[in-house]
Design goal:
The structure holds two protein chains of two kinds. Chain A is of the alpha+beta class. Chain A is built from 19 helices and 26 strands. In chain A, the strands form seven sheets. A seven-stranded mixed β-sheet of chain A has the order 9-10-7-17-14-15-16, sandwiched between helices. The model of chain A is unreliable at 1-58 (pLDDT under 50). By secondary structure, chain B is α+β, with helices and mostly antiparallel strands. Chain B has two domains: 2-77, Beta-grasp domain (Ubiquitin-like (UB roll)), CATH 3.10.20; 85-160, [2Fe-2S]-binding domain (DNA polymerase, domain 1, Orthogonal Bundle), CATH 1.10.150. Chain B has helices at residues 23-31, 85-92, 102-115, 121-128, 138-160, and strands spanning 2-8, 11-17, 49-52, 55-58, 71-73. Classes of the chains: A alpha+beta, B alpha+beta.
Chain lengths: 729, 161
Amino acid sequence: MQSAINRRKFLRTAGVSASALAIGFYFPSCKEPEKPEPAGIIELFKLNVDDNPVGMALNPFVTIEPSGAITVMAHKPDMGQGTFQSMPLLIAEELDVDLEQVTIKQAFGDEKYGRQGVGGSASVRTMWEPMRKVGAAAREMLIKAAADRWEVETKDCSTNNGKVINTTNQESLTYGELVEAASKLEVPEEPTLKSPADFKYIGKSVPRPDVELKVRGAANFGMDMKKEGMVYASVERAPSFSAKVKNIDDSEALKIKGVEKVLKTERTLMKSVLEGVAVIADNYWAALKGRKALKIEWEEDEKLLDSEKIFEDIREKSKTDGIENHSVGAFEKKFKTGDIQLTQEYETPFLAHSAMEPQNVLVDFREEEGICEIWAPTQFPQWAQGEVSKYLGIDKSKIIVHVSFLGGGFGRRSIPDVILEGCHLSKAIKKPVKLVWSREDDTMQSPMRPGSLNTLKGALDKDGKIMALQHKVTAPAIAYSLWGNYDGEKAPGGVMEPIGEPFYTIPNYQSRYVFVDVDPIPLVWWRSVYSSTNVFAHESFIDELAIAAKKDPLTFRIDMIGEKERDKKLLEKLKSASEWEKPLPEGWGRGLAVSHSFSTTAAHVVEVSKTGAALKIERVVTVIDCGIAVNPDNVKAQTEGNIVMALTAAIKDPITFKDGRVVESNFHNYRMLRINEMPKVEIHIMQNEEAPTGVGEPALPPLAPALCNAIFNLTGKRIRKLPFDLGEV
Amino acid sequence: MAAIKLSINGKSYEIDVEEDMPLLWAIRDYVGMTGTKFGCGIAQCGACTVHLNGTPIRSCSTPVTVAVGKKITTIEGVSEANNHPIQQAWVELQVPQCGYCQSGQIMSAVALLEETAQPTDEDIDAAMQGNICRCGTYDRIRKAIHRAAEIKSDNKTLSKK
């Protein structure tokens, strides 16, 4: 990662070369493919519609200098998911250059890059074709330039690692030698793409370029950004979300060496504005000490949040019918005629994202120049740009959002609330401000994953097959928390993922949604979003039905997979890879679960043991079908990450509320899985030549139900509420 | 404020900070080395791990004065050419994802390898338990430490020859 200053320099360089040498493309056809995804995913990406008219304008991804130096922009923020490599790699593959020749630079937020937001496991699957077309079009232009110079036909030219070769006489020219002529050519709209058999990098575990930086402490995160003359800010936040500042006594705070100023501040979090008191100091430690010395009187709501009451309300609402989301056959009618009928409820908690890098931003609003410069670890630089533009009342073109590496994101860093808070402070004190949240702020004040209650009803026929199934989701809506979107008629964005429509072939299937208002709790997407809660319920219930039908849970599922050949193969692979039929040692149990989310199917077998007092998670065997694995090692890394995050969510701590406050604050009471609790993992990627699909999230949802199914297999105890304590099963 | 002398990665630095300032902020904000990370501020996550005379400590909860007169090693000083066996193994096994916790992970792992040339899984669990990774790189960390032990012992054999 380049420092902020180097990135600015690059911008100038690019600006100069763009007129003469950089390859610019206009791609009328280069729009992202229609995403046949449930509403939530589309919702996530609709956010930029205003910013980005469909299609990409002059394409700024590739710059080739006459010296031969090639720069490819990584336009998507990297939060550990690997886009810093994957996006440029797709271009480089088709451009036919050696990766060693390519310098990757992180792009700042700009609509010229098309959509830059990262979320919904969408980068590779939506950019798979557009990014390759960028590379392929550049290659075709370079070939044309060479053919013109040699006065041969383009079919007599080929390329190899940054050179065009005249195949009739083996003469060659470097891309650098050709770029000026190439840049004057028309950009091919439909360049020919390689066939998968010719891929040099795609499908191979190419080492990620950011890793080397990260092992020597040289990768720049938002936390590491600096600007001359900057001051530090720490904000004492409203103890309950809607509390207002009544009185500030800053006398003690101002006595602390290094503290410059105390001021009331605000954080605009979508439809809410949250209040706080900021301490500005010449170093972070002083700001933090100053904050602790503040005496603030808050005016709080009379009705304060309380977890027990929230879940009582959710439980009460779950008894109502809500709205129908999707229906095949006639559930109500058929359910009653089943040989065996089963109804169960499953509860999942509110959760914090807890990325390792606490929230932060550096903002330099130079009001007299009308420029706002921002350095931020953000998942959505353009969204931030748009919101800052509205907030400060200046044009988007005057807002520069530099993107650092993100120390984890998981959805939390899509929302620009922290950036807006930084803008408020920089505007107020007329200085560059480095705003750093404490871990407590991050845990207690961030928008979070909603809790939910899922009610499932199922009926088996006389052969033990599922004849009718209903899945009712009772949950707060993220879309409502963010935008106030809920019309009472349609399930709001994403809440039914991925069980809105049946995964299995079930003749009578119905999904329903019951809305719950939990304002003012701020909500946002959390890795795999509603799939993380809905699949826990769904796949636990499928297991309960398999047990009621006296069938093997894996065979039961395979028998219901119908015409889905890829999913059937995946489950068969899971069977062999996990040695499903091999007897386990005494005191061991196993369970499985599968789901299809973000266009990818993933399934786990979890093995547990109980030889002493506590249960132990011994082994996780995973099979994932994500089409072509662009970087198989990274697919595995993401899957390992999903396993760990799902385990943490299953067996560690929930976010709870008492007297209006979030109870959990830091890693001592909002615990993370640690290395000594890490089971063995074995990950298998299905091999095929289908277009790539998501990998950042799909392996998360089926983990908790696989674990709980394994616990049932071992102990006969069914877990229907997360999280639970392994020591108490 | 007091002039405080620190020895970091073999170099001396003199900074003017409050005596109760945690070593973390002295290193990051005053010395200007940002490889050491802030994660929790209460010694729970290990992102801020540095060595004091070779022993891993949590710099977020260690007052700067405690480090005076001692040898501080940060991620930037783990090796001269970024080729410590731990760093090599970390690259070979592509351990980091977001990478934010990895400076701390590496500092804990380097200390473990100094103490135990061939650590078992149990040794690794014990030594690395204080370092949280939210991206979930634990399986790779375990494998990479075993691999680093191998690299280190190969290096020794080579240097003897």
